[in-house]
Design goal:
This is DUF7793 domain-containing protein. The chain has four helices and eight strands. The chain is an alpha/beta fold and about 120 residues long. The protein has one domain: Transcription Regulator spoIIAA (2-Layer Sandwich).
Length: about 120
């Protein structure tokens, strides 16, 4: 089955202009089971095609280590590159730390500006 848009209790997923958009819902806390669900739903939307991913994590409140580890490795399946959009300085610090420790398997960069995040993905379309 082909999905152009999908939503679960944690995030919304859609494809526009050959970019996959993932937007976490407000006040979301991610554990391993929810991380696995997020990745499974994302892959379903992608229908076996790799995309650059614009991931708006401004709604994310917290995640446990198992979820972070899973998302940094298995969460990179069918992704060409990932731009993570954050808005708070604390989130920026914590996410920067996460990127250094977990080392995602595809090019991944943090942004507070959506236009810059989209520009980063352009070469991967």
């Amino acid at each position: 089955m082909r999905y152009n848009h999908l939503e679960n209790e944690f995030a919304k997923f859609w494809i526009r202009d050959d970019i996959l958009f993932v937007e976490y819902k407000p006040n979301v806390v991610i554990d391993l089971a929810s991380a696995q669900r997020i990745v499974a739903d994302r892959v379903m939307v992608q229908n076996e095609k790799a995309y650059p991913v614009f991931c708006d994590i401004r709604g994310l409140v917290d995640s446990d280590k198992a979820a972070r580890d899973y998302l940094s490795q298995s969460g990179s399946i069918l992704t060409k590159a990932v731009s993570l959009v954050v808005h708070q300085s604390i989130s920026l610090i914590l996410t920067s730390y996460y990127l250094k420790i977990c080392k995602p398997s595809v090019p991944t960069k943090l942004f507070t500006d959506e236009a810059a995040a989209l520009a980063f993905l352009e070469p991967y379309i």
